């Protein structure tokens, strides 16, 4: 199938690589790699997912209609986690294009015209047990403008780093690295607001998966050769900001970089991330495929269970028809747990 370039949507969609997890518990957050008491304690979990496109899953089938403009998938990593953990309720208000401010203090504009969603933290409550947040990369158009410019200028110096030069000002300041550092404060404010709205939360700030290879180039990513290495520096700087924001706000940073090794946009059939071209039936450009969403969910599950292996679900749960604001409880009259009920429906 031939694919078409995604130009108009890139600045709105690309930045959402950050995954930030908040898990409600009445004590301090668990250390990285330590099993979460919320997940392993056996009590019912009320789960809320917040974030941008790397949580929402633009064009990953099948897309939700609530609202259509958020380009939210029924097979994003929050949906996988809801199934893995057999949660009692599940609210997904992730939205492609979201910036940090869209989570905490303003109504967000959507990709497709329509009603503007409320600030995402409005979905939280004192009863919330598990929250995932993926935010940061859209702030200051960090990833969106970088990708658009890097592709536009690549032919000017195919073996050089024309994009890096473009974003270096007259004083010699790399403005992308500068902005990646500034995002630390934005994410810190989000985490503080999550703690206030869900005061018992454990917060896990999950970094970006690998977007580009450590070495070499590929046809799937139309950057100049030198801008691959520079793009990696920008992403690593952003991840460092997320780690610092988590630590300073009493959260735990969860690193997806090791798990996504060999799954970058140049990895062919093993790629978690799409490259420069839009695949309208699988993923937006520079965004996760379904296998990337599943891979992220499996790694998060492993971390939060202290090394457990996620259930082997080919598609995410809850079921496709479930509303983003509907609890994942069985129908009226069903007394078994949600997970048991789903297993019964499969026969």
Describe this structure in words.
- The longest helix has 24 residues, at 225-248.
- The chain is globular.
- 33% of the residues lie in helices and 9% in strands.
- It starts with 9 loop residues before the first helix and ends with a helix.
- The protein contains eleven helices and six strands.
- The protein is α/β, with parallel strands linked by helices and 347 residues long.
- The protein has a single domain (10-311), classed as SGNH hydrolase (Rossmann fold), CATH 3.40.50.
SSE series: HEHEHHEHEHHHEHEHH
Count of all domains = 1
Please name the fourth-level CATH homologous superfamily: SGNH hydrolase
Low-confidence stretches: 1-32, 319-347
CATH architecture: 3-Layer(aba) Sandwich
Rg result: 19 Å
Average pLDDT value? 83
Distance between the termini: 36 Å
Number of helices: 11
Spatial order of strands in the largest sheet? 3-2-4-1-5-6
Query: Which sheet architecture does the biggest sheet show?
Result: 6 strands, mixed
Quote the CATH topology: Rossmann fold
Counted beta strands: 6
Write the layout of secondary structure elements.
Layout: H1 10-13, E1 19-24, H2 37-40, E2 46-51, H3 53-56, H4 77-85, E3 89-92, H5 100-104, E4 130-134, H6 142-153, H7 162-166, H8 175-197, E5 201-206, H9 225-248, E6 252-254, H10 290-304, H11 338-346
Parallel strand pairs: 2-3, 2-4, 5-6
Antiparallel strand pairs: 1-4, 1-5
Comma- or semicolon-separated keywords:
single chain, 347 residues, alpha/beta, Rossmann fold, 6-stranded mixed sheet, globular, disordered N terminus, disordered C terminus
């Amino acid at each position: 199938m031939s694919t078409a370039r995604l130009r108009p949507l890139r600045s709105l969609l690309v930045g959402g690589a950050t995954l930030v997890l908040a898990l409600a518990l009445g004590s301090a957050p668990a250390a990285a790699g330590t099993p979460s008491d919320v997940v392993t304690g056996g009590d019912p979990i009320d789960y809320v997912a917040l974030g941008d496109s790397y949580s929402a899953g633009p064009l990953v089938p099948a897309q939700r209609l609530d609202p259509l403009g958020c380009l939210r998938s029924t097979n994003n990593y929050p949906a996988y986690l809801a199934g893995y953990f057999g949660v009692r309720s599940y609210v997904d208000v992730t939205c492609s294009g979201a910036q940090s401010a869209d989570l905490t203090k303003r109504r967000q504009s959507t990709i497709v015209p329509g009603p503007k969603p409320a600030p995402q933290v409005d979905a939280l409550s004192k009863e919330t047990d598990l929250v995932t947040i993926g935010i940061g990369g859209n702030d200051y158009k960090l990833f969106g403008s970088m990708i658009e410019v890097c592709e536009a200028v690549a032919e000017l110096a195919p073996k050089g780093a024309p994009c890096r030069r473009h974003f270096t000002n007259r004083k010699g300041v790399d403005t992308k690295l500068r902005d990646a550092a500034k995002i630390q404060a934005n994410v810190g404010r989000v985490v503080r607001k999550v703690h206030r709205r869900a005061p018992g939360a454990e917060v896990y700030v999950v970094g970006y998966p690998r977007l580009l290879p450590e070495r070499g180039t590929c046809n799937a990513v139309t950057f100049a050769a030198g801008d691959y290495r520079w793009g990696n520096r920008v992403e690593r700087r952003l991840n460092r900001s997320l780690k610092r924001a988590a630590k300073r706000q009493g959260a735990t940073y969860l690193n997806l970089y090791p798990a996504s090794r060999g799954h970058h946009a140049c990895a062919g059939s093993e790629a978690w991330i799409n490259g420069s071209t839009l695949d309208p039936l699988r993923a937006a450009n520079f965004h996760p495929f379904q296998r990337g969403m599943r891979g992220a969910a499996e790694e998060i599950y492993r971390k939060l269970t202290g090394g457990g292996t996620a259930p082997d679900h080919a598609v995410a749960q809850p079921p496709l028809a479930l509303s983003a604001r509907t609890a994942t409880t069985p129908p009226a009259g069903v007394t078994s747990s949600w997970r048991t009920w789903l297993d019964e429906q499969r026969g």
